[in-house]
Each structure stands twice: as C-alpha cells, then as structure tokens.
Design brief:
Helices cover about 35% and strands about 30% of the residues. Helix 5 crosses helix 8, helix 6 packs antiparallel against helix 7 and helix 8 packs across helix 9 (about 235-245). The protein is globular. The strands form two sheets. Strands 1, 2, 3, 4, 5, 6, 8 and 12 form an eight-stranded mixed sheet that branches. Strands 9-10-7-11 form a four-stranded antiparallel sheet, with helices on both faces. It has about 300 residues and is α+β, with helices and mostly antiparallel strands.
Amino acid sequence: MHYVLASAPAKINLALRVGPPRLDGFHPLDTVFEAVDVFDDIEVTRTAEPTVTLTISGLGEDLPTDKSNLARAAAELLQERYDVAAGAHVHVTKRIPVAGGLAGGSADAAGTLVACNVLWGLDLDAAELLRIGAELGSDVPFALTGNLAHGTGRGEVLEALKPGAMHCWVLLTNPRGLSTPEVFREFDAIMGYERVSETLVPDTVALRDVLASPQITALGDLMVNDLAEAAFSLRPDLRKIVARIGTLGVATILSGSGPTIAILAEDFSTADAIAGTAKRAFPELGVVRANGPAAGAHVRVAR
Ligand code: C5P
C-alpha cells in the first residue's frame, strides 16, 4: 500500500470511578467508555526513507509533532517492533478538541496504528493492536475498539457492552485545556491518597445494568465522574458552567479529566435544540453535537 486513510473517535466516560494510586503511579479505574461520532482523520503515506514525519491540520495546529505526539509515537513503535524498512508521513486532521478529556491524542494513536498496520502490510490482529495500544496510553485500546465498553485496570482492560439506546450529546468544549496528570494529582491531594499496593475502586454495576435498557433518564441519574471535584478545584470556571447549564438536558457530566462538559439529551431533536441554546448562552465555549456509540478506529481508504 502507498496511502491509507483511517478515522478514530472521541470518547466520553459515562461513569469514571477512581481508586487510590497504585505503586506504579497509575490510578485503578472502573469506567464506562462511550465513543462518540467526532472523528479525527489519520492519513499515512509510505516513504522510502525509514523515518516517520507528522503534520497536523484543523484543531491541533499548535500541537507538537515530535516524539511526544502519540500519533508519531504509535508509528515509530510499530516500525521498530516489526523491523519495518519503509517510513511513513502521517497527517492528522483534528476535529476532536485538544486536551479536552475526550482522548483525542489516544484517537490519533489508535488511527495511526490501524492505518500503518495496513500501509506496511503487517497483518497484526486486533489483540496485538490492543496490546501495543496499551503501551502507548491508557485510553488507546478503547479508541481502537470504540462503541461502548467497561474499562478496568488503568482503563486498558476492556469488555464490550451492548447499548440499549443511542445517546445524544451536546459537548461544551473549552478554549483552555486541562492536563490529565495534573487532575489526577489534584484528585490525590483532595482525597488524601498515597500510593498503595491493593486498591478498591467504587464500581459501575448499576450504570452498566441501566445501559442495556433504553432508559435515558435512569442513565443520566447514574452518571458520575470522580475526577470532577479535582478538575473544578483547578478550574473553578467549570463549576460555574455546570451551574449555569442547570436543568438543560437530562444530566450533565465532566468528560474524563475535563474540561469538556457533556450534556446528555433525551433524543436527537432535543439535543439539537440544546446545542442552539448553548451556543447563545456560552459564546466563549465550543458547542459540538455528538451521538454515541460510534465505531472505533477503522480504515476507510487503502490504495
Ligand atoms: O496512560 P496515559 O499516558 O494516557 O496517562 C497519562 C497520565 O494520566 C499518567 O501519566 C498518569 O499521571 C495519569 N493516569 C492515571 N491513572 C490512569 C490513567 C492515567 O494516573 N488510570
């Protein structure tokens, strides 16, 4: 192959329960991921030179394109692990807001993995891609599988869930991002947590039960994010936004480590109406309509 185009989705955590940090510093999670139909596009073009280069357009023009970028790290990891003689130019068209708690960087890594797998004819199966994804970041495996999943471990141990309904969202994105490690550090400070060898994490059983049914209101009642207080402590403006949203929609939740705030709506048309209201009420924020569940990272064109 000479050219492959893949797309990879943003995610929301319908529930994010967090325990005290493990000895390796990561926090044990019990979470429910939902992929939503906001996609980054990842184009990879084969090069004779055995190097990986990266360019970005769209929302992430200011992002670093060196090895700290997960898309580039993903291509280089595959190249190194499987002794690939060719190189690749990776171009990412970003639609997922950056540093927003929507796992956009993980989506780019997942899209690059599936695209380079085809570009370089590696023929890696889904299980191998998931293993490599987990090396790159805790959210990369879910960006590969997409749809709806229960996540444990540090978020990389996944079990697919069956949705009982489509979920209509309005995402309020923020021009100022939040650093995930910083939010986790603030969470530890608030909770008074130290690293421990055996940790207990509050579970998401009730929410997972409700997910199998079409009841949107019951789902809204059970949505929870243990990182919300930490994100609000670092960014008091977010708490004010949530207060101003009030009863707009069925329920409101901070997405992942924030700062994106997700409003769950009853149905498609209500979500469209809420998006219109939110655009007028929050001119300082981005307003994105999204539906879930959505497909994980997938190849769209290969030639
Ligand atoms: O896995 P990933 O590299 O995406 O994680 C980024 C940072 O977020 C980690 O270095 C850690 O500080 C924090 N994190 C955590 N517990 C998790 C996932 C991430 O503490 N389960």
